[in-house]
Amino acid sequence: MTAQNSATSPKAIAVAASPQGTGTLLAALGVVSFSLTFPSTVWGLESFGPWSLVAVRSTLAALLAGAFLLVGRVPLPDRRHWAGLAVVAGGVVIGFPLLTTLALRTSTTSHAAVVVGLLPLTTAAFAAVRTGRRPSRTFWIAAVSGAAVVLAFTVQQSGGALSAGDLYLFGALLVCAAGYTEGGRLARLMPGWQVIGWALVLCLPLMAPASAVALALEPVRLTAHGVLGLVWVAAGSTFFGLYVWYRGMAAIGIPKASQLQLAQPLLTLFWAVFLLGEDLPLAAPLAAGGVLVCIAVTQRARS
Asked: Which of 45, 103, 206, 217 has its CA 20 to 30 A from that of 144?
């Protein structure tokens, strides 16, 4: 077999494509995990107050991450990485969960899902500024189109006016995009699970006492849904979801990985109907088609 034929053999092509395919799969698993966050949060609010839920969620996730780091005998990150880990902690571990939990006290899961659907475009913009990379024009056209579909869906469903919880949701977009971007950058320098692991551990000295205070001040009414919701947002969304998400971003790049999240609102809509019994908006199938087209375009565009 010639060198040219060997380089273009199916086996060689499969090996070359493997990192991209694995990265896409990991990022997609993260999106599925995140899509369950809002329904699980609504369940958690049946048993806990918003501050208690966020504090206990972060504390449990931090203890889980710390155990993995300890068993793996993972050394402390270099001093130069701690500032970035603080951004991840502030945006992803504390900021986004707190702001979205406060929003879900007044907003429906489906409404929150479509507003947070703007996260991919916000993340891509943060990534362009932070990393200096400039995605192609086709990428941006598709990304902006996807965001426009999500925004139009939101406005149509809300009757042209934004709800009070949208202020929390838009704030959540900004802090989460910053955390995703910094986490994606760090995941190129250390394993993704260590990025979120150390970010969680960094929050433990703050969130452990916050849990005690919040539990003392807010009423607790334990239910099966409430406990299950807490367990998922702590172990599923906060630890496992972010672990596979950062690994995926490191493999395929922040802009492309962020565009996979355009599917997250649609998955959350499904969970809202299946798990919470919310009514599915009639415009959802149209929005789904438009968003999926945009995802396909962004995945083919060079970034």
From this structure: 103
Place of tokens 């799969």: 25
Instruction: Report the pLDDT value the prediction gives residue 132, as an integer from 0 to 100.
Output: 75
Q: What is the pLDDT of residues 108-166, one digit of tens each?
A: 888 788 788 778 778 877 887 777 777 788 878 887 887 888 778 777 776 666 667 78
How far is the C-alpha of 277 from the C-alpha of 228, rounded, in Å? 17
pLDDT score of 13 more than 50: no
Tokens of 181: 């971007």
State how far the Cα of 195 lies from the Cα of 225, in Å rounded to an integer. 30
Q: Using CA atoms, how far apart are residues 230 and 137, in angstroms rounded to an integer?
A: 41
- Could you tell me if 294 and 259 are in contact, meaning their C-beta atoms sit under 8 angstroms apart? yes
pTM: 0.82
Instruction: Kindly state the tokens that stand for 265.
Output: 């609102």
* Structure-derived torsion over alpha carbons of residues 69, 28, 173, 281, reported in degrees to the nearest 10: -140
**Could you give the angle at the alpha carbon of 218 between the alpha carbons of 104 and 63, nearest 5°?**
80
Residues 6+ apart with CB under 8 A from 192: 183, 242, 243, 244, 245, 246, 247, 248, 249, 250
Q: For the purposes of burial, counting CB atoms within 10 Å of the CB of 219, is it exposed (0-12), middle (13-18) or buried (19 or more)?
A: exposed
Judged by DSSP in three states, 293 sits in helix
CB 177 within 8 A of CB 119: yes
The whole-angstrom separation of Cα 116 and Cα 261 is: 9
- Angle at the Cα of 241 from the Cα atoms of 240 and 242, rounded to 5 degrees: 95
Instruction: Give the DSSP H or E segment for 238.
Output: none
Q: Which residue has the higher pLDDT, 164 or 29?
A: 29
Segment among 41-45, 238-242, 252-256 with least mean pLDDT: 252-256
Q: What is the largest CA-CA distance in the chain?
A: 73
